[in-house]
Structure formats: structure tokens, C-alpha cells
Write a structure and sequence with these properties.
The protein has 13 helices and 17 strands. By secondary structure, it is an alpha/beta fold. The radius of gyration is 22 Å and the shape is globular. Bound molecules: 4'-deoxy-4'-aminopyridoxal-5'-phosphate. 4'-deoxy-4'-aminopyridoxal-5'-phosphate (PMP) binds next to helix 3 and helix 4. Keywords: Aminotransferase, Pyridoxal phosphate, Transferase.
Length: about 425
């Protein structure tokens, strides 16, 4: 039964942490949505490569050549992982935030941008120099599509436009109707970028099937280390724009001009936006994680994770003081990311108690999605001063998020449910 497959081995499985009640316990990392633990396989691959690493695209030495090959082959691995189209470019960045800021820097003149207020700040904020339309939070996936369609219908149909949408919410874990939003965008001549930071670690993402124009994700949420990310998709806007960073690697030729200035011919490949010595280890780690997830198979990963989602939902539903946050309703499909508030508790104190008394690491706060969390908590009646109370006192407007994935053993989820019930 794929739903009962063993978790993938990850780093940190044996880390023990002290409890305030005395003794120690193995750490239950239930904050995958912030950063997932690296796969053991990624660590092993990186360790095997580390003695051989060298500068890429520069050296004539054997190890430089080897590193260049691994670096460039990693693009191919990521392209296969995302099922990209011929001609799509894979640009290595630092993170999803970096990828979306890069795309924002590549928008054509007079581009209109459409983004739901429910986005993570990384998807919400990079477009502020363009003409942005912020769309109100929809309460069903269908309403998301009609809201977007209505906004696009009012726009100048001949000007360039971009829609930015998340695949899975980092707050509610809910899946967004990416295929339908993409169809709506394209029907109105707009392009679309998918923020897959929370989707790619949990579901297969096919650029070809979804028909999105770009996809962004981060290595550290995909079981690789920090510091590397991906922007994949259409080459044209990327190659018409000035390089994101000016420097070596992005420039094909540089020469002094007769007038004393410098003349630069920039690359028209992904290298155009990868100036400077790249994060070879981080890129290789992303490629290793992509291979590991594909080999395990998303059918198995999804089946197993959904079993854990069901267990957490069922456990939380038994506690009347718990309210799970959701835009699209309790039965909406979601990844292993669940946020909630507990009546009578400040969320920060609750998260601290999970850590101190049970060795469970979750996140509390507004999850870099302030407008979304405000919308979700605004519809939750609370006593003043309690978590979710609609005042702006630091620490009072916040929620608790539990998140998990391919490396999570059943015991972590069981301990979490027991802890919530006891608290
Ligand atoms: N988008 C979403 C949906 C996210 O959850 C996150 C990270 N929490 C980001 C973007 C930004 O990712 P990073 O911090 O790796 O740039």
C-alpha cells in the first residue's frame, strides 16, 4: 500500500532536544513549509561530489570541467522534474523570492500584474513597480477563477500582463486551481507564473500539462539545503530584459568603446541572469532532490502524505477549541500544511509549549502572508487579547502552522495530535 510506504530518510532524524519537564526526546520537525530537512540521499550525493568541486564555466582543469558538467546537467534534471517544454529556460537563483523578483525585473514595459491578496509576500510584493491589481481573497476555487476573469476582462487586451498565483498555500495548504487560472489568463492574453514553493515538494508539477509560463521554487523546501532556487519557463521575457545582476558569467563579450565607455554583449541563455560564481553545491543538491522524489514517485508520496493529513485533520477535529484555517472550506484538498488557532491560547505560547513540553517544532505567526491570515482570522470570532483577536498587538494576531512531508514518520504526527489534545 503506497499510503503506508516508509518515510524517506532525512537528516535530523536522531536529533534529541531537552524537555522542560525533564529528560529529552527526538525532535519532531513539523515545520516543513518553512524549510524541510534535507534528504539523506541529497546529503550523500553532495558529500560524494564535494571533494571534486571547482569553479564552473571558467576553468580548463578536470574538476572545473566536471563541475560545469554537473551544473549544466542539473538544469536538465530540473527541466525533466518540472516537465518543461522545449525552449524553456531553467535559471538557478537563490530562492523562490529571488526567482519572482528576477521575473519582476524582466517584465515588459507597461505590463499589468494580477495577484491575489492571499499570496505569500514573495509573490505579492515583487511587482510593486508595475501596475498591480490586487484581487480579493476568493472563498472557493471557482470564485478564484471568476475573480481573475473579471479583472482580466477589464484590462487593455493588447498590453502585456502577468498573473502570479501560488500552487499550494503556505498557510492553509489548500491547492489552487492552477489549470483553470492558467486557461483564464491565456484566454485574456496574459501570462502566468506559478509559485510552486509549497506545491513542488508535495505534488508532481508539469509545466507542460498545467501550461503555466513560469514556475518558481526553493531548494530548502524541496529537501535540499538553503541558498538555491529555480525560475523555469519561457525564454522570451527573460532574454529581452537586462541581466538581473551585471557581472561575469552573464556577459559574453566586454570591450572598451572608442568613446571610453564599455560595450557589453550579454548571454541569451539562462546564464544572462546568473552573473557571478554560482552556488554549484546548492544546484547539484536541488537536482539530487528532484531525482530522489521522482524515483520515489509522487503517487506514493501523495498517498502517504494524505494519510497523515487525514490523521491530523481528524485529531484536530476532536478538539472543540481548535479552529483550522481554510479559505475554500474544510473538505478542500490540501498538502501537508495546516494552520489553526486554539481558543484560550495565544498561538505563540501554544507553539512554545509544543516545543518545550513535547519536542515538536511548528511555526507560529502570520507566515509572511499577512493579508491572508488577517482575512482568515477576521472571520474567526475571538475574545480580545486571544489569538486571532483583530487588534494589531504584536503576538496577538497569529496562528499555529503544522507542516510535514516525505520524511515525516507517523510518530511525529501522532505525538503532535496527542500534544494538542493534552494542551
Ligand atoms: N512562496 C511560498 C508559497 C512560500 O511558502 C515561500 C516560503 N515560505 C516563498 C514563496 C518564499 O520562499 P523563499 O523564502 O525560499 O524565498
Amino acid at each position: 500500500d503506497p499510503a503506508c510506504a516508509a518515510p524517506l530518510p532525512v537528516l535530523g532524524r536522531d536529533v534529541t532536544v531537552p524537555l522542560v519537564t525533564g529528560g529529552e526526546v527526538t525532535y519532531a520537525a513539523l515545520d516543513y513549509a518553512a524549510s524541510a530537512p534535507a534528504l539523506q540521499r541529497v546529503w550523500d550525493d553532495v558529500a560524494a561530489y564535494a571533494p571534486y568541486y571547482g569553479s564552473v564555466h571558467r576553468g580548463a582543469g578536470y574538476l572545473s570541467q566536471l563541475s560545469t558538467d554537473l551544473f549544466e546537467n542539473s538544469r536538465q534534471t530540473v527541466a525533466e522534474f518540472l516537465d518543461c517544454r522545449d525552449g524553456d529556460q531553467i535559471v538557478f537563483t537563490r530562492s523562490t523570492t529571488d526567482s519572482l523578483n528576477l521575473l519582476a525585473a524582466c517584465l515588459p514595459a507597461d505590463c499589468q500584474v494580477f495577484v491575489f491578496e492571499t499570496e505569500h509576500h514573495a509573490s505579492l510584493l515583487p511587482w510593486r513597480d508595475a501596475q498591480v491589481t490586487y484581487l480579493n481573497a476568493p472563498r472557493t476555487p471557482e470564485e478564484a477563477v471568476t475573480t481573475l476573469e473579471r479583472a482580466l476582462a477589464d484590462r487593455d487586451p493588447y498590453g502585456p500582463a502577468l498573473v502570479c498565483v501560488t500552487g499550494a498555500s503556505n498557510v492553509t495548504g489548500e491547492l489552487w486551481p492552477v489549470r483553470e487560472l492558467t486557461a483564464a489568463a491565456h484566454a485574456h492574453g496574459a501570462r502566468i507564473v506559478l509559485d510552486a514553493a509549497q506545491l513542488a515538494p508535495h505534488h508532481a508539477v508539469s509545466v507542460r500539462d498545467l501550461d503555466v509560463d513560469w514556475v518558481a521554487f526553493s531548494g530548502h523546501k524541496l529537501y535540499a539545503p538553503f541558498g538555491s532556487g529555480v525560475l523555469a519557463g519561457r525564454a522570451d521575457w527573460l532574454q529581452s530584459a537586462e541581466p538581473y545582476l551585471a557581472g561575469g558569467g552573464a556577459s559574453r563579450q566586454v570591450a572598451r568603446r572608442a568613446d571610453g565607455g564599455v560595450e557589453v554583449e550579454w548571454h541569451t541563455t539562462a546564464a544572462r541572469h546568473e552573473a557571478g560564481s554560482p552556488n554549484v553545491i546548492g544546484v547539484y543538491a536541488i537536482a539530487s532532490a528532484c531525482k530522489a522524489l521522482r524515483e520515489e514517485g509522487f503517487d506514493t508520496l501523495v498517498a502517504r502524505e494524505q494519510r497523515l493529513v487525514t490523521a491530523v485533520r481528524a485529531g484536530l477535529a476532536e478538539v472543540p477549541e481548535v479552529k483550522v484555517l481554510s479559505l475554500f472550506g474544510d473538505d478542500a484538498p490540501r498538502v501537508g500544511v495546516i494552520s489553526f488557532v486554539v481558543q484560550g491560547w495565544n498561538s505563540s505560547h501554544f507553539a512554545a509549549a509544543l516545543s518545550a513540553e513535547y519536542g515538536i517544532g511548528v511555526r507560529d505567526g502570520l507566515f509572511c502572508a499577512h493579508p491572508l491570515v488577517r482575512t482568515l482570522l477576521g472571520s474567526t470570532p475571538q475574545e480580545p487579547g486571544e489569538c486571532g483577536a483583530p487588534d494589531e498587538t504584536p503576538g496577538s494576531l497569529n496562528a499555529i502552522r503544522v507542516s510535514f512531508g516525505a520524511g515525516t514518520p507517523d510518530e511525529h504526527v501522532e505525538r503532535f495530535v496527542r500534544a494538542v489534545k493534552e494542551l
